[in-house]
Amino acid sequence: MAKTYSDFSQLKKIKTEPVTEPVPPTEPPPAPEDRKLAESANSADYFSSLLGAGASPRKKPPRTTVVTPATISRVRAEQAEDAFAAERDALNAELDEKQAVIDALAIDVAEAKDELVKAQEELARAQEELARTQDELNQTKATLDAERAAPKVDEAMLEASAAKDREIARLQELLVEAQRTSLSSTVLLDKPESFSEKFPGEVREHLLEALADAQRAADAGGRDRRARILEAILCENAVTGELARRRDEVKQIMKDAGTFIDDAAIAALEKLGFRYVSGSNHHKLDYAGIRFPVAKTPSDHRSCLNSAAEICNRVF
After folding, report:
1. pTM to 2 decimals?
2. Could you tell me the residue ranges of all domains in the chain?
3. Sequence-ordered alpha helix ranges (H) in the chain
């Protein structure tokens, strides 16, 4: 009976004996290539084919060994088991790496959840602080609005203002009295108290123009002393030109009206102190009790200018 070995690396060093026993009937029949290799004179070719074609060639041993099909099956099973174990170890190593990554990710997720919880708590506190600040701002605004709406009454200021008003009134009375006393000794003529002016300084303007006319008449009539006195008065009291301005404005209003005296012309005349008195056929105007008619529809443009000259001559 032939000897068998489980360590195939020592086959070349072992001196074997030829197999004389037949193959047991229970062993499976080997493949055709395996049978050829098993029946060959050199068993090293077979193991070289199992270990790979790139194995370095060795010298043939002086003796050959015939490998049984059972040995071939067992070698193949061990090789398959080794390959499976290597693949299993690789898969286990890969699984270990993935598990390590999963564990690290789980730790990161837990830390992220903790940070998220902290951020949510800080956000809640910030929102509460913002709400409190907004309430305080609204209260401050309401207080300011109430203070602005409420009238500010300062008794001291009111008393001081009243005292100033009384002092102003007293000073005005003194001023009026002083003016009355001063004018009574310096003015040439006194204006009647009951006479009302259509505009401030109307009486003075008429008097100055009358004095100018009198000065020219006195100078032309040879009344030299009168002419010199009137000239001196006119030099000290220059006219403002208000009467001349009003005469020019009346003429311009009537010129712009053209051949039809409309409401705009009447309104412009009323601003100068005229008062409109309605009439059936003509407009009637009143100025300080002096009345004169104005045609509603003049016959030509000269009629308005003639009316303007008449108005200026009678009231200015």
Report:
1. 0.40
2. 8-67, 91-150, 174-236, 242-315
3. 32-39, 44-51, 69-149, 155-186, 202-220, 224-236, 242-257, 263-271, 301-315
Distances (CA, A) of 261 to 258, 264, 267, 309: 7, 8, 11, 15
Q: Which two tokens stand for residue 87?
A: 């693949």
Helices and strands counted in the chain (H then E): 9, 3
Residues paired with 17 in a beta bridge: none
CA 71 to chain centre: 93
Strand 290-295 and strand 282-287: the pairing is antiparallel
What count of residues does the chain have?
316
User: Which two structure tokens, joined as six digits, stand for 218?
Assistant: 């006195």
Which residues make Cβ contacts (< 8 Å) with residue 219, sequence separation at least 6? 227
Alpha carbon of 197 to those of 67, 124, 192, 309: distances in Å?
Answer: 156, 80, 11, 22
Mean pLDDT by 10 residues, the chain (316 residues): 46 45 52 52 51 52 67 86 90 90 89 88 88 87 78 71 85 71 55 79 88 92 92 87 90 82 85 81 84 73 78 88
Distance (Å, whole) CA 44 – CA 94: 38
